[in-house]
Predict the 3D structure of the following.
Amino acid sequence: MTVTLQDVAALAGVSIKTVSNVVRDYQHVRPSTRARVQNAIDELGYVPHSMARRLATGTTGMIAFALPAIEAPYFAELAALVSTEVDGFDFRLLIEQTAGGLEDERAVLRGREQGLVDGLIFQPTLLDAEAIEEFRGTTPLVLLGEVPAPASVDHVMIDNIAAARAATIHLLQSGRTRIAFLGRPLSDHHATASQRLSGYRSALEDFDAARGDDLLIPMSRFGAFSAEAAMLDALESGPSFDGLVCFDDLAAIGAMKALARAGRVVPDDVGVVGWDDILMAQFTNPGLTTIRPDKATLTRTAFRLLRDRMSGERGEGRHELVGFELVVRGSTAS
């Protein structure tokens, strides 16, 4: 049977209000009374219900993190870091997957968790700034990622254009002359891919390097399997390239498998750069050169901004960039 506040109050010999004060950690409770109530809580195994807590305190102690794909290693690593952050402030974390679906992203903003959480950290992939402003609810919100944010919403991201330039320039400076891009967006709605493609193009133009649509390899969807299939198709169709900038590490891993199947050696024939520096990037053969976003600072900054909003901050949105670095491994050896 569910243990209630009334059960705890009866065992401790105090009022329900006193039990509520102890649960809320209200400071003006006599130590002897607090101890008696805590003993009753421990004996009965009472766990405060989130909605009851909200009625008593106006908070639930829950934070939501909405992300596109739980199974993607990058987002799994972000979720672990967010969980560590919220645990440090005695919050619980609710994870929600949108699967990159437009309606699911809208539902997150409309407040599907309204009343269940105190704040929301959200990485959309399809919504634009206008839609975010239109559909957002009243729950405090911080955005992650590359989708443009309205002026009123806090936003944390890395400079994807600069990072893609760095990846492309690294390949050029290692002696590559024809560099392809794996993960060309099939529509303008995918802000992340569009920004990375923009940085890649900018570097090629600055170095007057070979460029053309034949070097832009589309993927039907993101992931290692799709990347492998897209790379095999590209290798069959004949565009020559000796460098490859990939949308992310999973795409790079799929591409490296396809290159090996086609008899192309990495890095001798093709230098490959990934993105995200997921854990398995260290264990490919050769090790994968990749863009490493500062994920710890990203999540720490997002939660700091969210705590400000939950504490009553009402100013304009704060848009903060965090750093990145190019981690050079064997996949781009000269």
Q: What stands out?
A: The chain has a mean pLDDT of 91. Residues 139 and 161 are 31 Å apart (CA to CA).
